[in-house]
Design a protein that fits this description.
401 residues, mainly beta, 18-stranded parallel β-sheet, elongated
């Protein structure tokens, strides 16, 4: 009987210790302002919950190792380091202010506001439904970002990630994409340098504005629903290994520049160069869609332009086929009134139609080989300005025949 008593006592002690361990690993709910002043580990299966109107502050030099879940409904002020392990996640439904470092191999789910003034390094998955603003310290994306909210980036960013965007991404600092994949169904605004090193598939809107420069060293595919606007003095530079395939709309306008040292293929899309826009081609442009050069814009060709569809030169615009430049026309080129095609030192082969409107200006030999140009002839008449039934010699007008 005594032996059974000691066995019972032993089991009770073991069970009690187990209860103590379970209590130690229990969930924590922060209902008042709390400061984390020592390193903490959140165990797998454990949840830290920050309540509404409560601030959880992590001091500088302190690390929180998260193998479980942090659910923030209030405010987290991180001045130290949050390390999210593979099985860990943060669900942010409040405000997360990062002044230190967040290093994630797990999952970040943001439903409200993340303001980062430190390092935000995600090798796992970031799902953003709210607003992420990165100001200082750097944004490093090495996993997957799914954005249906807003990302404002004011600091240099390096991305090895897969980025799926259906929301808004705005870059005000350098964005360097290294071996990354970007699929855009939303809006991307660039105001700085944006590097493409791998695959960028656009189904949405890309706005390259102000001092923005897009440098393509990969494959940029602008799909049928895609719109790329290069505006207000911005630049798109297609590197010698870069490829741009367009099935949508590319607009280059308001003194902006597209410089091509690689390959641009317009597959049934529209390329609009307008309002003093400049296209400099040093390599290969193949047009199977529509190219418009209009409103005092310029195309400078030092490479090869192959036209299998239609090119429209309109509204006081210029096409310069410079030394070493070749234009092969298998479709139609329209040179409208007061526009210029300048071919003083290049080659123009024409197996299609080059149509020069009445007041179109041709400089040099056009074409150098192939079908002769089709010239629209002009007729001079005198308008009856004083309504006396006779034309007035001092008021001559030019009309097409």
């Amino acid at each position: 009987m005594k032996k059974n008593y000691y066995v019972f006592i032993g089991l009770f002690v073991i069970f009690g210790l187990a209860l103590m361990q379970t209590a130690h690993a229990a969930d924590r709910i922060f209902t008042e302002h709390t400061i984390i002043a020592v390193d903490e580990t959140i165990a797998a299966g454990e949840t830290w919950t920050v309540s509404n109107d409560v601030t959880l502050t992590i001091l500088g030099g302190i690390s929180v190792f998260n193998n479980g879940t942090i659910e923030n409904n209030g405010t987290i002020e991180n001045n130290g380091t949050i390390i999210i392990r593979n099985v860990g996640d943060i669900d942010n439904l409040g405000t997360l202010c990062n002044n230190g470092g967040i290093f994630s191999n797990g999952t970040i789910n943001n439903f409200d506001i993340i303001n980062s003034y430190g390092v935000l390094d995600s090798k796992g998955t970031t799902n953003n439904f709210g607003i992420i603003s990165s100001y200082e310290g750097g944004l490093l994306l090495e996993g997957t970002m799914n954005n249906s909210g807003t990302v404002d980036n004011y600091t240099n960013t390096q991305s090895f990630a897969i980025i799926n965007n259906t929301g808004i991404i705005r870059h005000y600092a350098n964005m360097i994409g290294i071996a990354n994949v970007i699929i855009n169904d939303g809006i991307i605004e660039n105001h700085s340098e944006f590097y493409i090193h791998s695959s960028f598939s656009n189904f949405g809107i890309i706005k390259n504005l102000d001092t923005g420069i897009i440098i393509n060293k990969g494959q940029l595919a602008n799909n049928s629903t895609g719109i790329i606007t290069n505006n207000f003095g911005a630049a798109i530079n297609n590197n010698d290994i870069g490829e741009i395939n367009n099935n949508g709309i590319i607009r280059n306008k308001n003194t902006s520049t597209i410089t091509n040292d690689g390959t641009i293929t317009n597959n049934g899309g529209i390329i609009k160069n307008k309002n003093d826009g400049i296209i400099n081609n040093n390599s290969t442009i193949t047009n199977n869609g529509i190219m418009k050069n209009k409103n005092t814009s310029t195309v400078n060709n030092n490479g090869t332009i192959e036209n299998n569809s239609i090119i429209k030169n309109k509204n006081d615009s210029i096409i310069n086929n410079d030394s070493g430049g070749t234009i092969t026309n298998n479709g139609r080129i329209n040179n409208n009134d007061n526009c210029t095609i300048n071919n003083t030192s290049g080659t123009i082969g024409n197996s299609g139609i080059i149509y020069n409107f009445c007041l179109g200006i041709l400089i040099g030999t056009i074409p150098t080989t192939g079908n002769a140009i089709v010239q629209e002839w002009c007729t001079t008449y005198y308008r009856d300005s004083d309504s006396d039934g006779y034309g007035d010699p001092g008021d001559s007008q030019t009309a097409t025949s």
